[in-house]
Specification:
This protein is of the alpha+beta class. The protein has four domains: about 1-110, OB fold (Dihydrolipoamide Acetyltransferase, E2P); about 135-210, RNA polymerase II/Efflux pump adaptor protein, barrel-sandwich hybrid domain (OB fold (Dihydrolipoamide Acetyltransferase, E2P)); about 270-325, E3-binding domain (Dihydrolipoamide Transferase); about 380-585, Chloramphenicol acetyltransferase-like domain (Chloramphenicol Acetyltransferase). Strands 17, 20, 21, 22, 23, 24, 25 and 26 form an eight-stranded mixed beta sheet that branches. It has a four-stranded antiparallel beta sheet with strand order 1-8-6-3, with no helix packed on it. Strands 5-4-2-7 form a four-stranded antiparallel beta sheet.
Length: about 575
């Protein structure tokens, strides 16, 4: 006899555990297989008794309704089987499952019902009467070891009918409503909101209604009907028992929808899942994966699943985030989209009376390409540290050297000193010369300093890179700054000239301004902004007087996930010290 998967409430589920072995003798309704879907874990009972002769599935297989799980050799005695077979000759030919179920005689059904009734009476602390007895009920299998009572949906004295929702249980996997096990009146609630509960724990006491007595009488009336109707009654009861087993083994589609809504309601106070909730039912993903998607801020409907039936795994989420942050195509689609996610669309500005005259101007190609990269800053917790460096002595040294440099055709600006000092500071504070890993668990430290230098062009800002700055002298740095700036203005920069930066310097030179907040160029974790130097009065402690000093404003922006405020202050002050006396670099 083939034991098939019942209605699972979902398209398919994964075999998590096989609870029987070949040769085992099982009874009807014994649990044989544990299935796990994206909504819950549930045990599948056997629809017939017998000896297990074959197991047709393995752990990890995906099964769906009607698939053969195991095969059993029926242990029903031949006489009962013959009687059932003879009775069934006068009936329309049933399906295979109904044929097997109909082998059970009415006597066996009655014995099963009597045994079940005896068990119920043993569990009950009172004898059933016309008004029903008070019965203590235990929680069904929750699919997890324990879960929390999120809400109690009834009160003492309330009248409930079987399958009415009475408790909302919440675990890491899902929120599930526990139905009333029978109709009646709530006498006592044994748990309270916030309690951690486990499978089989007593949770409620219900006084059964008269419906129980009516059901028992109805069963007696059915048993006293003519012998001709016994086969049909047996088939009906078998079908009913099978349906009840299906309902008990797995949540119905309506229950699954209710559970999904409850989970969404529970998470709504924590994350903005409502924006994609309408489409979530189309996604095949487990509760843990959906929770991770909410934590990462990922619209799970945009993630492609790699498992069977396009099921979305945690690895798919990580791959989606990585692709969004590293590929140009994803940068355009998700980067700018993320930036505008919290912004409404522009209003209609065609009304001249409100907005006045307008004119449309296209962005340059460079600006369009830069926008997705700039949008990454919406993901970074950026902070800026400001400081001043006394470069009076450094400027005197530069003035002494620039004449000889100019004779060689080299532009020797203060930027060469800033690049050299910053590169040396990065070797002493390597955390600023690093990147944060995709999973936010590691820091990738760079062993070389590739310095990005922001250059203003007619088309916008561009950042060429000087490689291995830590090994180069001031003269070589000045030469490469001049070469890269010229290539940027002439639009002759190659792809290699723009790749590999580990840190960036953005200098406003003599454009004016006292300070600004530069944006960290992801995946870097820091950028140094340099404003125009100016003469300022500074107190000379040894001379006890003010004297004019050339002060250079510095603005260090950093990714707070990697750099804390104290380290940023120390790093910035270290650079100011090096710029005040470049000879320190030689020590």
């Amino acid at each position: 006899m083939d034991i098939k998967a019942p209605d699972l409430g979902v398209e398919s589920a994964e075999v998590s555990e096989i609870m029987v072995a070949v040769g085992d003798v099982i009874a009807k309704d014994d649990n044989i297989i544990l299935l796990e879907s994206d909504k819950a874990s549930f045990e599948v009972p056997s629809s017939a008794a017998g000896k297990v002769s074959k197991i047709s599935v393995e752990v990890g297989d995906q099964v769906s309704e009607g698939m053969v799980l195991i095969e059993v050799d029926s242990d029903v005695d031949s006489e009962a089987a013959d009687e059932s077979s003879d009775s069934s000759k006068n009936e329309p030919k049933p399906s295979k499952t109904d044929t097997e179920d109909s082998k059970y005689t009415e006597a066996e059904d009655a014995n099963n019902e009597q045994a079940q009734q005896t068990k119920d009476n043993a569990d009950s602390s009172k004898t059933q009467n016309n008004t029903g007895s008070a019965t203590t009920h235990a929680l069904p299998d929750l699919g997890v070891e324990e879960a929390q009572v999120a809400e109690i949906m009834v009160s003492v004295g309330d009248k409930v009918t079987a399958d009415d929702s009475i408790l909302l249980i919440e675990s890491d996997k899902a929120s599930v409503e526990v139905p009333a096990p029978e109709s009646g009146t709530i006498e006592k609630i044994l748990v309270k909101a916030g309690d951690m509960v486990a499978n089989g724990q007593d949770f409620i006491v219900i006084i059964g209604s008269n419906a129980d007595t009516s059901d028992s009488s109805a069963a007696d009336n059915k048993a006293s009907e003519s012998e001709d109707s016994k086969p049909q009654q047996s088939a009906d009861k078998s079908e009913q028992a099978t349906n009840e087993s299906k309902q008990a083994a797995s949540p119905s589609k309506d229950d699954a929808a209710t559970d999904s809504k409850a989970a969404a309601k529970s998470a709504s106070n924590k994350l903005t899942e409502a924006q994609v909730n309408e489409k979530l039912t189309e996604v095949y993903a487990g509760p843990a994966v959906r929770k991770l998607a909410r934590q990462l801020g990922v619209d799970i409907t945009q993630v492609s699943g790699s498992a069977i039936n396009d099921r979305v795994l945690k690895e798919d989420l990580f791959a989606h985030v990585k692709e969004s942050l590293t590929t140009q195509k994803s940068a355009i689609n998700s980067g700018s989209g993320a930036a505008r996610a919290s912004l409404p669309s522009l209003p209609d500005m065609s009304n001249v009376e409100i907005w006045g005259e307008t004119e449309i101007e296209d962005l340059s190609r460079l600006q369009k390409v830069s926008i997705p990269q700039l949008n990454y800053n919406t993901y970074l917790p950026q902070v800026t540290q400001f400081d001043l460096s006394d470069i009076t002595e450094t400027e005197k040294l530069r003035s002494e050297l620039k004449g000889g440099m100019k004779a060689e055709g080299i532009g020797f600006t203060i930027l060469a000193f800033i690049v050299k000092a910053t590169a040396y500071a990065l070797t002493q504070h390597p955390r600023f010369n690093s990147h944060l890993s995709d999973d936010n668990t590691q820091i990738i430290l760079r062993k070389t300093v590739n310095m990005g230098i922001a250059v203003a062009t007619d088309d916008g800002l561009i950042v060429p890179v000087i490689k291995d700055v830590q090994d180069k002298g001031l003269k070589q740095i000045a030469i490469e700054i001049g070469e890269l700036a010229g290539k940027a203005r002439d639009k002759k920069l190659s792809t290699k000239d723009l790749q590999g930066a580990s840190f960036t310097i953005s200098s406003q030179g003599n454009l004016g301004g006292t300070a600004f907040t530069p944006l960290v160029n992801w995946p870097q974790v820091g950028i140094l902004g340099v404003s125009e130097a100016s003469m300022q009065p500074r107190w000379n402690e040894s001379k006890q007087t003010f004297e004019p000093r050339l002060m250079l404003p510095l603005s260090l922006s950093y990714d707070h996930r990697v750099i804390n405020g104290a380290d940023a202050a120390v790093f910035t002050r270290y650079i100011t010290t090096l710029l005040a006396d470049p000879r320190r670099i030689l020590l």
